[in-house]
Design a protein that fits this description.
The chain is α+β, with helices and mostly antiparallel strands. It has 21 helices and 20 strands.
Length: about 675
């Protein structure tokens, strides 16, 4: 009643003074996106200083803009009407924040799926209100619209029908020739294509999360660079190089400038190595396929074992000497160019120490979140950490007096890194074993080997194990005792996992708890089809889960995951284990875990070529990856989506997160469904 009273007062002024002036007019246009999809465009043109309001205006505020469509015949609406960015201002007269458009021209759009080969009429009406400061508000006259769309002409041979999923290219592909070129360039067969589109969904965006991820990856790379500084290939170079610049320069200021430039050049060189991934626009799903490839993971395993043996001192991995010699000769040019080539020389001659460390972080990044910009972030972080000391010590030379002297401890750092490389190597072998389901490296076997590596490291630090380049240990320093104790305790901790402990501190790195001898299933039961993390009832097929959701009137919880996904295991073993989280997931949701790296082949009639990526969808993993990329425009795992049985999104998707935030995410989904968590 209060709202009606306020609005009636607001209407009174324009009725008397403007005599129901027409403040808004509408124009309609349409765009054919593909053979089966079109975009309807509604353009509002407003008189000067008059405002139109959002579809999502809060209760108590001005009347929202509303689009109503007549019952669909031969077409289907793909998601809600999209609107431009709104301005939000608190209005005293309404007592709420109002959402309005500042521009005098406002464009709305609605995507439509054409489901018939006959012409289609899309009809409806628009209602709402316009307001002007110091004048008042006027309700819009109901504006009717009608669009004439041509029926689709292409037939999708062998396409599987899903409800409420629809087949949609989601791309502006107009002619078959162009489409054939796209598919052929991707190595597929020319012809018709499709994608798995969930009705009513829009791309989730996620720029803020991506930004946070890039910073985190940068810091990981930075940490790897700091570790590389403590190796015998790099550490002794710091005082030598800084001293060279400060002594050879004409004055102190120029010496500092050249040393700082040297540090920046080092950072730039490592960053440039990642540029090709950006320039050639390597898509995340391609990197994801590479990262989950069992062949590549075995290659990584072999390389890391080779790196470890090199760090133990049995041989040295070096780039061709001719490269270092050429770079060293070029550094004699002098000036800025000479400094840049000096930085290249350092990168080349220190490769035997920095290469394995950088390779570890790159491989880990690729396996955790395959994204070209993540590769750029880790390279930038690594290069920055390597170059930073040269700049800082040039600015503050007295700091070098506090540096420890080079000695046998530098080789010990290399050997410790060698043990850690062995542990990483085992992780990549485990990835291949999980993806292929060979059963060679079950959880217990993995943890026994990690425990043995930890115990061996503890013994090495105390001098009981020696390698070729180790000098005689004269004294067991407090640092060695502390580190040795830490690794010994780690070995004991890993051992408890062999007997069933959860090991939350390292969750994600060992094989999951369901992939163990203790949880082994009968020979005729495949792990892929039967496992559900933490015993939470789950499905592994979206369409079966959707049927269950309809039957039980429960929302869907889609879990885009992967066998080789570290953060997926950390969520399952660190967050899903929480009693309240587990209870809500078990009782209030239908959980469907979709493995994007599942290698099981689809039946021939279910295989297709993606219109969005141009790739052939041949495996179960390809199928779920296509669904994720097309609907949510990302290919990172884990990603969690809450949907109503009809396909309505109930909350913003989340990825790897904390228990508290994940719990809030689950509860917000229930609230959107009009439900509450059972006690």
């Amino acid at each position: 009643m209060i709202r009606i009273f306020i609005l009636s007062l607001l209407f009174l002024s324009p009725v008397l003074n403007a005599q129901m002036m027409n403040t808004i007019s509408w124009k309609f246009s349409q765009k054919q996106l593909s053979d089966s999809t079109a975009e309807l465009i509604f353009t509002a043109q407003l008189e000067k200083d008059w405002h139109l309001y959002s579809q999502k205006t809060p209760d108590g505020g001005p009347l929202p803009t509303e689009f109503s469509f007549e019952k669909p015949e031969g077409f289907e609406l793909l998601g809600p009407v999209k609107e431009p960015k709104v301005k939000i201002v608190f209005e005293d007269v309404f007592g709420v924040d109002v959402h309005f458009f500042e521009s005098s021209e406002v464009k709305f759009s609605q995507k439509v799926l054409i489901k018939t080969d006959k012409p289609v009429q899309v009809k409806g009406a628009i209602n709402g209100m316009t307001c002007k400061d110091e004048v008042g508000c006027i309700p819009m006259d109901e504006t009717k619209f009608s669009f004439s769309l041509k029926g689709r002409t292409l037939k999708t041979a062998g396409a599987q029908e899903f409800t409420p999923l629809s087949i949609d290219t989601n791309e502006t592909v107009v002619d078959t020739d162009t489409l054939n070129q796209v598919v052929a360039a991707a190595g597929g067969e020319t012809g018709e294509c499709k994608d798995l589109v969930i009705e009513g969904l829009q791309a989730s965006g996620g720029n803020d999360a991506a930004s946070e991820s890039y910073w985190f990856i940068f810091l990981l790379g930075f940490g790897g660079g700091l570790v590389a500084l403590l190796t015998p290939c790099v550490f002794p170079m710091i005082p030598l190089t800084v001293s060279f610049f400060t002594k050879s320069a004409e004055n102190k200021r120029k010496g500092m400038f050249m040393a700082i430039l040297y540090g920046l050049s080092i950072a730039g060189i490592y960053t440039l190595l990642a540029v090709p991934f950006i320039v050639f626009k390597v898509p995340p799903d391609t990197l994801n396929e590479i990262a989950t490839s069992s062949i590549l993971n075995i290659v990584f395993f072999v390389i890391f074992v080779a790196f470890a043996i090199s760090f133990f001192g049995y041989y040295e991995i070096q780039l061709p000497t001719s490269l270092a010699n050429k770079a060293d000769s070029a550094s004699n040019v002098g000036g800025i160019l000479g400094v840049f080539f000096m930085a290249i020389t350092l990168a080349l001659v220190s490769f035997s120490c920095t290469g394995p460390i950088l390779g570890s972080f790159l491989a880990g990044t690729l396996a955790t979140n395959p994204d070209p910009y993540n590769i750029l972030s880790v390279m930038l972080g690594f290069g920055t950490a390597l170059g930073l000391p040269f700049a800082l010590f040039a600015m503050f030379p007295s700091w070098m007096n506090s540096l420890p002297k080079s000695g046998g401890w530098l080789n010990s750092v290399k050997v410790v890194l060698g043990f850690l490389e062995l542990g990483m190597a085992l992780k990549f072998l485990s990835n291949a074993d999980l993806v292929e389901q060979w059963g060679l490296l079950k959880r217990e076997t993995f943890l026994v080997i990690w425990a043995l590596i930890a115990f061996a490291l503890a013994l090495y630090l105390l001098g009981f194990i020696k390698f070729p380049h180790d000098s005689k240990l004269k004294k067991r320093t407090p640092v060695r005792w502390v580190l040795s104790s830490l690794f010994f305790v780690s070995g004991v901790y890993f051992t408890t996992g062999v007997f069933g402990a959860n090991l939350e501190l390292i969750s994600g790195f060992p094989p999951p708890m369901f992939y163990s001898y203790a949880a082994a299933k009968p020979a005729d039961e495949g792990v892929n089809d039967n496992h559900c993390p933490q015993g939470i009832p789950c499905e592994h097929d979206f369409y079966e889960a959707q049927e269950r959701a309809f039957a039980e009137n429960k929302p869907l919880l889609i879990d885009f995951t992967g066998w080789a996904c570290v953060n997926c295991r950390r969520m399952e073993e660190g967050v899903w284990v929480d009693p309240e989280v587990k209870k809500i997931m078990s009782e209030e949701y239908v959980l469907v875990s979709l493995y994007v790296d599942e290698k099981k082949e689809l039946p021939l009639e279910e295989q297709f070529t993606s219109c969005k990526t141009g790739k052939n969808v041949k495996t179960v993993g390809n199928k779920w990856s296509n669904m994720q990329v097309v609907n949510f425009e990302t290919n990172s795992q884990p990603q969690y989506i809450l949907l109503s049985p009809e396909g309505r999104m109930l909350a913003e998707p989340v990825g790897y997160t904390s228990t508290a935030e994940y719990l809030q995410f689950l509860k917000s989904g229930l609230q959107s469904m009009g439900k509450t968590a059972s006690k």
